[in-house]
Design brief:
356 residues; 2 domains; 39% helix; alpha/beta; globular; Aspartate Aminotransferase, domain 2; binds pyridoxal-5'-phosphate; Aspartate Aminotransferase, domain 1; tyrosine decarboxylase activity; pyridoxal phosphate
């Protein structure tokens, strides 16, 4: 087949990126290993422990429980599953802001729980008063997002944790995308900042691990015990993951990515991305575009449909939020030069459209 992998030089909206070279090398070495069967494949299992420990360090947890999942979707689903199984209610409800990732809709469908979405405030963040009004005796899980997919917003995590606690519900933080930016900001978002039970942080996004590498973390081992099933034919006796056979490449890649980049390279990436987001915001505003002021490095702005189509025709990979803004995610591969080239395209299509 004559297919070539996507080049990243015009990819603006994706949350995937070029893997770190050390992570790509490690992934190739462990292609055939199955971390789902740790007694048969002990070395990749040891790498997984290393990766989970590193993710624990990043998220304020000394003795983390968790594993390298297929992605944020699986990690979020497992958080809902644990909450459902540990809940007192027979009719468990997940309460989350409307800004929550669509993976929670899948989790609710698969697990047969109700997803109750609560409108965000006018800055696209979870509104604690509205969330407090939405929880009740059936609430099994409250979700906060630390770095929303559409606007890069960070919910008020400590306030949401208190609401969950008062409702006797578990509390999950989805930092799938934001988790490798947040350590270098002053946001409160992780296990050490609030009573967080479970957390999603994806090495295969800003962490620059090769796909598939999501991160599922729990404050205590009891959460994993609640998820574990017996495994008669394997050398180990129980398995808490959703997948059976898993990618050794994903696990080894995540371990190597974390080893190579935490904390210095991740800090540098964050600072570069934040500066790029600020400069892009200014450049767009100078040109008269309406831009949502970024928090984490993700820039959403109003772009009329003809211009949106025209820049896409020039090869720029650009997508929209649910409410229609074009969104540019300042991922590690998104350089200042690339953004300047994008602005040139934008200027050219605008001149073309106005007939000047
Ligand atoms: C990307 C993302 C997910 C889903 O992760 P996948 O790895 O695509 O399954 C979940 N939550 C947030 C906030 C995300 O940005």
């Amino acid at each position: 087949m004559d297919a070539t992998p996507q080049e990243f030089d015009r990819v603006l909206s994706s949350m995937c990126t070029r893997p770190h070279p050390a992570a790509a090398r490690a992934a190739r070495r462990f292609l055939a290993d199955n971390p789902g069967d740790p007694a048969t494949y002990p070395d990749v299992a040891a790498l997984e422990e290393r990766a989970v420990d590193a993710l624990g360090t990043i998220t304020g947890l000394d003795d983390p429980a968790g594993y390298v999942a297929g992605g944020g979707t699986e990690a979020n689903l497992q958080a809902v599953r644990a909450a459902r199984d540990l809940a007192a209610s027979d009719d468990p409800v997940v309460v989350a802001p409307t800004s929550v990732h669509f993976s929670f809709q899948k989790a609710a469908d698969v697990l047969g729980v109700t997803l109750r979405l609560v409108p965000t405030d006018d800055d696209h963040r979870a509104d604690p008063d509205a969330v407090a009004a939405a929880v009740d005796d059936d609430t099994a899980l409250v979700v906060g997002v630390a770095g929303t997919t559409e606007f890069g917003r960070v919910d008020p995590i400590p306030a949401l944790a208190r609401i969950a606690d008062e409702a006797d519900a578990r509390f999950h933080v989805d930092a799938a995308w934001g988790g490798f930016h947040l350590p270098f900001t002053d946001h409160d978002w992780h296990f050490d900042h609030a009573a967080v039970d479970t957390l999603t942080i994806d090495p295969h996004k800003v962490g620059r691990a090769p796909i598939p590498a999501g991160g599922f973390l729990a404050r205590d081992g009891a959460t994993l015990d609640a998820l574990a099933v017996e495994t008669p034919y394997l050398e180990t006796t129980a398995q808490a993951t959703l997948a059976g056979t898993r990618s050794g490449a994903g696990v080894a890649g995540a371990a190597a990515a974390l080893d190579a980049q935490w904390p210095d390279e991740y800090r540098e990436n964050h600072e570069r991305a934040a500066a790029n987001a600020t400069s892009l915001t200014e450049s767009l505003r100078d040109r008269g575009y309406d831009v949502v002021t970024p928090d984490l490095p993700l820039v959403a702005f109003d772009l009329p449909e003809p211009a949106f189509e025209a820049v896409r025709e020039e090869g720029w990979r650009l997508s929209r939020t649910g409410s229609g803004e074009a969104r540019i995610v300042c991922m590690p591969h998104v350089t200042r030069a690339m953004l300047e080239s994008f602005l040139e395209t934008l200027d050219a299509v605008r001149v073309g459209a106005s007939g000047r």
